[in-house]
Specification:
Order of helices and strands: HEEHEE
Strand order of the largest sheet: 1-2
Radius of gyration: 22 Å
Helix content: 10-25%
Mean pLDDT: 81
Strand content: 5-15%
Oligomer: single chain
Low-confidence stretches: none
Structural class: alpha+beta
Number of helices: 2
Length: about 100
C-alpha cells in the first residue's frame, strides 16, 4: 500500500488502528497494540520520506483498523514466527576423547 493510500485509510477508519504481536515462542499468546492516529501518521511520514507515492509494505483494513505487513516474514507477526526465538541447544563439535587423559593435553 502506498503511503498516501495508507494515510487516507487510517484517517477514514473509526476507532484506533491496531496490530498484533506474538512475542512468546511455542504459544498463541498475543499482544494487541492500539495506536493513536496522529502520532502514527507522523511516524509514517518519518519512516517513508519519499512522499505519498512511497510503497510502505503495509496493509490496513479500514473496517477493523488492523495494520499489518504485506509479507509475513517479520519476527513477531504470527504465532509461527514469534518475536522471541527459543535458543538452539549448543553444539558439541569436539570429538570424544580416546581415553581419560587425551583431553588434558
Amino acid at each position: 500500500m502506498k503511503l498516501g493510500e495508507l494515510r487516507g485509510a487510517i484517517r477514514k477508519t473509526k476507532g484506533n488502528p491496531w496490530f498484533d504481536c506474538y512475542p512468546f515462542p511455542g504459544t498463541d499468546k498475543t499482544f494487541r497494540f492500539y495506536l493513536q492516529k496522529t502520532p502514527l501518521l507522523e511516524e509514517l511520514d518519518k519512516a517513508y520520506p519519499g512522499g505519498k507515492a512511497s510503497e510502505t509494505g503495509l496493509s490496513f483494513d479500514v473496517e477493523t483498523g488492523q495494520l499489518k505487513p504485506d509479507k509475513h516474514d517479520f519476527q513477531g507477526i504470527g504465532k509461527d514466527n514469534p518475536a522471541i526465538k527459543t535458543p538452539a541447544p549448543p553444539h558439541d563439535d569436539t570429538p570424544a576423547p580416546k581415553d581419560d587423559f587425551s583431553d588434558l593435553l
